[in-house]
Amino acid sequence: MAKVLMKGNEAIAEAAIEAGCKYYFGYPITPQTEISEYMAKRMPDEGGLCLQAESEIAAINMLLGASASGTRAMTSSSSPGISLKSEGVSYLVGCDLPAVIVNVQRGGPGLGGIQPSQADYYQATKAYGHGDMHLPVLAPSTVQEMATLTCEAFDIADIYRTPVIILADGAVGQMMEPVNIAECRSREVPPKTWAACGHGGRRRHNIINSLLMDPEELERTVLARFERYREIEKNELAFAEYMVDDADIIVVAFGIAARICRTAVDAVRAKGIKAGLLRPITLWPFPSSRILFHSETAKAFLSVELSMGQMVTDVKLACECRRPVEFFGRTGGVIPEPGDVAAKLTAMAKELGCETR
Amino acid sequence: MNRITIVAGHAGAGKTNVAISLALIYAGSDVGCTLIDFDTVNPYFRAADSADKLRAAGIRVIVPEFANTNVDIPTLPADIASVFVTGEGFAAGEGSAVGDFAVFDVGGDDGAAALGVYRADIERAGYEMLYVVNMYRPLTSNPYSAAALMRRIESYSRLKFTGIVNNSNLGSETNAETVAKSVPFVRELSEMTGLPVVFTAVMDERFAPPEAKSVLIMENHTKALF
After folding, report:
1. pLDDT tens-place string over residues B116-136
2. Of A3, A34, A259, Cβ closest to residue B170
3. What CATH number labels A239-352?
């Protein structure tokens, strides 16, 4: 497929099909409904199934069933609907099932609004389900990344037998940009010997289950899962950097916020302020080691988010109090302007006594 | 009764931008113009976002009554009926006069179903219905899929397209070459459907294909997110 013009939501759907997703379970909610609409139009051509469930809770449990059978499957929603799915997400983890779950975030809490937000950062990275667990969280910043990271998500899910979250937002979901689906890469994934897909009497049956009443057994299972988490932390960390090498102030921002910040970095660089941008692409694992590394040379960090400030706590933890970490953000669906971020950077530079032109 | 232009096509084909551009041209003529935001599908990018700018240009704008508020539900404002009124029913500035232009910006592909409500009125008034198409949209990337979608919108709306608008673009990566590549595509679509290519829409005059008989140079009216 050559370059086409797509909405971010459509790019997720097309990339999922490209990655071999055969089951999509959705329930409409702005600003991600185009994923369902696109899947409904395309899945029949691909011999797949797009099903509008009766609720988000039904959709996540259908996802569990489809994944248990060894096929690639996905669900998507936006913030309020994502909360509804949380029990099922924990069950997916408890069953060691691969799955892709997309959150195109909108403002909250409650029904909130329908405009873009990043206020589900804590939920996605810390506690999307009960129990001892982590989830790989991928944060696309362009429509192209909506596609490439969706393909990545399916591979990561299969390799480590874990649900993977795509944490997007209403802006990247709704905006249209050129995208090349052929840029999606696929990795080798292990055969799904654990799948409950019929055995024809040739092997013992596989059991998919998250209930382990013996504490010793449950502990062993959790420990084994955490071994895989260590592997994910080692192998899957992803981030992008822009002008960080000589930067006095490093902005840390993901998704749509990173694009606003890049413009702001350019603006203050033109005034002689040495700013740079570190964009986490994986929010879990978080690029803590990279932030610690930069704290040797950078004088301060600024976390910019479409929320009241959530990732900022991870930036603070990462640099171990060596450098001041400040926050700038707007919430409720309001998108900060590059000029607002530039003003914050200028004020910080003045306070830090950074040299300017 | 107004002179009706219906702008329809695939979601993301650029209908709103084309509809606003047409309304601005009509507003420059000596008769009035009404733009109807007929987007009951997507609350993110729609003509209602440009309502202030359009009103300032002298265009009468009809948007869903509670657009962009808490009760933003897919309803059609009663005001729409005003464009079908016969006789001098309105004083100047209060509504449309006979012979004014009315541009319907129809959201989404499935959203065209709502047009069916006004089918009888629209047919009585006489209308032009433009199929805005972008060959770089994956679901209308060849003349066959583009024609199939065109027929689907016709069956939803129970109205017939009268012409094609070539709005083929790759967003920020659009150039003369990408537009030129769309010329054979729309020609084939035109031959398949028997509908004329009414104009080619571009945002930069340098992108206008030399073969195109009629070109509309548009501004970008899409709401900037940041």
Report:
1. 889 999 999 899 999 999 999
2. A3
3. 3.40.50.920
